[in-house]
Amino acid sequence: MHLIGVKGDEPKDRKGAGVDLLTARYSRSNLARNIAVRADTTTHLWTPFLNGLDCHLGCRMCCRFRPTGTGRAKSSNRTRAMMERWVWITLIITAYLGITLTIGLLAGRRSTNTVDGYVAADRGFGLLVMYFVTGAMVFSAFAFLGGPGWAYSRGAAAFYILAYGALGMAPFYWIGPRAAGLGRRFGYVTQAQLVVGRFPSNHLSALMALLSLIAFVPYITLQMEGAGIVIEAVTDGNVPMWLGALVAYGVVITYVLASGAMAVGWTNTFQGIFMLLIAWTLGLYLPQRLYGGIGPMFEQIAEVKPELLIPPGLAMDGGPWTWGAFSTSIIVSVVGLMMWPHFFMKAFTARDDDTLRRTVILFPTFQLFLIPVFLIGFSGVLFPSQPPSADFILPFMVLETQLPALIVGLFCAGALSASMSTGDALLHASASILVEDGAGRYVQIEDRKKPLYIKGLVLIIGAIAYCLAIVSDLSLVQLLLASYGIVSQFAPTVVAALYWKRANTIGTLAGLLAGTATSVFFWVYPDLRPWDMHEGVLGLIIHIPTLITFTLMTPAQDETHIRRFFS
């Protein structure tokens, strides 16, 4: 086993070398000296990276050690080469966005110009589209960027994502077909419509619409921020974050406006396949190139930074993460996963119940996407230089290892796939929910005009999320966890609607208000959380007893209404 660095210089037995050797090898100035001294060495592991080090370090380190000669001419050639590189990468990104836009626009030809067509894709998605629309919708910019960021900075803590992804879809095997059957019978296209169909209340519908929007906006912000981060990084800042996010989500908004749910389904299928291929290619390649394999990589990390591999990993402050925080993050994510309104709405798009059940059975296989993503993050732990933030580790590694422009462009397209495949569903769902469950409960809106209002709200919500993405400085994963605290409160409400005949409107409304208030309180005051538990779990602890208590203290629903819903 050897440290990544200059081959041939390390001792054969490294056990006594310790951190001093690592520090000496990894200082930027030492790395730059090795460039000058070993310019003609063909065995240097970092040769592709070192050839372009000046471009990424701004010539602050390596140029003072580089032999002089043609000087200005060489600098001009390097500048021209770098310019050509980012231009080629930009062209590849543009081509990808063009293909995605074309698929999205063409998909709309298959749907009717009705609310069912725009919001539920005429309930016609088959197994292939359902598999990718659920997988790609869940594994977004937070997985493609935040996942490697957590593996890089917090180590084993990132495995919470793998755990909840494998478990979170399982309850949908029973809940999904029941919701879909009610949707076909009563015309439901949103989660709140189903809940309010059981618990008639305009206030409950408006509350669910408001909470959905509150949870959606940071989630959409996360997707836009991820897209902008990647584009800015791979173009060496020539396309700034604000412009990259604007262009990428300009494409998303265009095909969502034109084709609705059908565009979301077919673009997600294309994007899901694409990002799986890119993730596995990079996840296997980088450890092999930098360490000689996945096994040697973890052996070296275990020797130099063992704390990263000790469960449950590290907290945000660099100290050990508690098991209470780790386990409750998994619980709230498992509960919240299937309760995301945009995710739940896909039950109404399935062709039949068997398609839904097969999708649930196959869904855990999409977790294979996370394995190479985590490997990319771990491959950066012992890298000589550091990204500006942990969320930048994936694009940083791609750039610092000097991969060809084609590969960098395809990587960026894969990252955009992860971001856009979730962002389009979120924008479409948030606008649909506000019209169907918010305004539509208080104002009579003609069915033929509803798609027009939904499209207007897509633009407004997209603009709000974009502005937040430009100014936000929160971790991508932290943004997602904050949203889960709110969304998880929908779980007792939906379960009561589908399975508890004694439940009533007053109990449901009281429980949802109490659980949400508790979750928000502990999010605002995290130091008051007992046992470092996630605020969403604390909200559920208050929500469920409140729902039961208020239900049992108030009259039951009319028997005729119960029979109609449960028949």
Task: Kindly list the characteristics that best describe this protein.
Sodium/glucose cotransporter; mainly alpha; 567 residues; globular; disordered N terminus
Question: What does the model show?
Answer:
The protein has 567 residues and is mainly alpha-helical. It has a single domain (80-566), classed as Sodium/glucose cotransporter. The protein has 27 helices and no strands. It has helices at residues 18-26, 28-37, 47-51, 53-57, 72-107, 115-120, 127-138, 141-154, 159-167, 172-186, 191-198, 202-234, 241-259, 261-291, 294-304, 323-337, 341-344, 353-362, 370-379, 393-400, 405-438, 450-471, 476-487, 490-499, 505-524, 535-553, 559-566. Helix 12 packs antiparallel against helix 23 (476-487). The longest helix is centred in the N-terminal third of the chain and has 36 residues, at 72-107. The chain is globular, with a radius of gyration of 25 Å.
Topology summary:
Layout lengths: L17 H9 L1 H10 L9 H5 L1 H5 L14 H36 L7 H6 L6 H12 L2 H14 L4 H9 L4 H15 L4 H8 L3 H33 L6 H19 L1 H31 L2 H11 L18 H15 L3 H4 L8 H10 L7 H10 L13 H8 L4 H34 L11 H22 L4 H12 L2 H10 L5 H20 L10 H19 L5 H8 L1
Helix pairs in contact: 5-13, 5-14, 5-21, 7-14, 7-18, 7-21, 8-19, 8-21, 9-16, 10-18, 11-12, 11-24, 12-13, 12-20, 12-21, 12-22, 12-23, 13-14, 13-21, 13-22, 14-19, 14-21, 16-23, 21-22, 23-26, 24-25, 25-26
